[in-house]
Write a structure and sequence with these properties.
With about 400 residues, the chain is α/β, with parallel strands linked by helices. The protein folds into two domains: about 5-225, TIM Barrel (Alpha-Beta Barrel), CATH 3.20.20; about 240-350 and about 385-395, Lyase, Ornithine Decarboxylase, Chain A, domain 1 (Beta Barrel). The protein contains ten helices and 17 strands. The chain has helices spanning about 10-25, 40-50, 60-70, 85-90, 100-115, 135-145, 170-185, 200-205, 220-225, 340-345, and strands spanning about 5, 30, 55, 75, 95, 115-120, 150-155, 190-195, 215-220, 240-255, 280-285, 300, 305-310, 315-320, 330-335, 350-355, 380. The strands form two sheets. Strands 1, 10, 11, 12, 13, 14, 15, 16 and 17 form a nine-stranded mixed beta sheet that branches. Strands 2-3-4-5-6-7-8-9 form an eight-stranded parallel beta barrel, surrounded by six helices. Helix 2 (about 40-50) packs across helix 3.
Length: about 400
């Protein structure tokens, strides 16, 4: 049975470790849960760990998050589109904004509901995702200050999320300076400067983030431990919170390089592993494909295995000269990159299994603003559909 195995003890370790780093830096943080796709068992485990501030980006997940974590404050991480205003105000205490007209809609909806909604103004610092140019920030903040049911509580920025621009001390200092200038100009207080995501953790640990940066939105490092600056795993974090266990559907000794003329729609992921013409080796097919995961983000636990390619329903592993005792029906394990984890968590064809214990609760630096069955103590929380993945079309099977 193909399954994602989520280890709550490893998850708790990463939550506690990151929280200790935040406390040492005098910062607060929000745990980004969008990768969980609203999975209530894991959300409840996070609540039991003491998580009280979470970030979401999918409207469809908000009901699940609210139900599973009733004491948590939810940050809406996407720029709010006008049709989402009612849901965002109903479920989320904080949103990230760069369009004043949308913020006015949020203000009107908050007024109808009799609530006070908190907002951060997002600033563009070079990664070219969301955020207004700094020259427009004073006018935006001045207009936001006039709203009755929205309170502007800080500034935010995204780096490393689209173009891959790595945050520097200069980026952080720039945003902290904008906060000071806006406070002086408008005579207000903006208590939050949220400039950090997982990509900022190496700098945070190295003490290279100015004190003015006091809030972080962390997701990938919690669930994968990824060092987004230099690659690998951030020292001190675990990279085994989520492991994919995939079943071998075919095991054959074959040529390592294809024969015949190749078309443009090839599905090879690892060219160096294809081998020279005539070279042979063991190849295993697993029943996970691009339908289920971004297969370039599957990282075999066995260093001898190489992901050679993937179609919609299958991924091919080169095993080398020795199959290592592997048989059809056995499992092979993978760590994951973030894009692969996102798609796997959202796939209804892959089971999700939780193991380990999350208790006792932590006091976190957060505030409200198949053949093998799961091991002992594991709980299956989501089973795949019994009907198989729909047949692929053309040459993608």
């Amino acid at each position: 049975m193909n399954r994602l195995v989520i280890d709550l003890e490893a998850l708790r370790h990463n939550v506690a470790t990151i929280d200790a780093w935040m406390r040492a830096a005098g910062a607060r943080w929000t745990l980004v849960t969008k990768v969980l796709c609203g999975e209530p068992t894991i959300l409840r485990a996070l609540a039991a760990m003491g998580v009280r501030s979470v970030g979401e980006s999918r409207l469809a997940n908000l009901d699940d998050v609210t139900t599973a974590m009733p004491r948590a404050e939810i940050w809406y991480l996407r720029p709010t589109h006008p049709s989402a205003v009612a849901a965002v105000v109903a479920h989320c205490g904080v949103s990230l904004n760069s369009e004043i007209e949308t913020l006015r809609l949020i203000d009107a909806e908050a007024g109808r509901r009799g609530v006070l909604h908190r907002a951060l103004a997002m600033v563009e610092l070079g990664d070219l995702r969301e955020g207004m140019l700094p020259v427009h920030l004073p006018a935006f903040c001045e207009a936001a200050q006039r709203l009755r049911h929205v309170r502007l509580v800080g500034l935010g920025a995204n780096l490393g999320c689209l173009a891959g621009v790595l945050p520097t001390s200069e980026h952080f200092a720039q945003l902290a300076l904008y906060r000071e200038l806006i406070e002086l100009k408008l005579g207000c207080r903006l208590p939050i400067v949220s400039a950090g995501t997982s990509v900022a953790l190496p700098q945070l640990r190295a003490g290279r983030v100015p004190l003015g940066i006091n809030h972080y939105r962390i997701g990938e490092a919690v669930f994968l431990g990824t060092d987004l600056v230099s690659g690998g795993t951030i020292p001190g974090l675990r990279d085994d919170v989520v492991i994919l266990r995939a079943e071998v559907a075919e095991l054959k000794r074959k040529a390592l390089a294809p024969s015949g003329e190749l078309g443009a729609d090839a599905h090879v992921l690892a060219d160096p592993a294809r081998g020279r013409l005539g070279e042979r080796g063991w190849r295993a097919l697993i029943s996970i494909g691009q339908y289920d995961a971004e297969c370039g983000g599957l990282l075999p636990l066995d260093a001898r295995h190489v992901v050679a390619g993937a179609s919609s329903d299958l991924t091919v592993l080169n095993l080398g000269d020795d199959a290592g005792g592997l048989r059809v029906g056995d499992d092979v394990g993978f760590r994951l990159r973030y894009a692969a984890l996102l798609r796997l968590m959202g796939s209804r064809y892959v089971a999700k299994v939780v193991q380990g214990a999350a208790a006792p609760a932590l006091e976190l630096a957060q505030e409200r603003l198949g053949r093998r069955r799961p091991g002992r103590g594991a709980e299956i929380i989501s089973m795949p559909r019994r009907d198989a993945t729909p047949a692929a079309h053309g040459g993608t099977a």
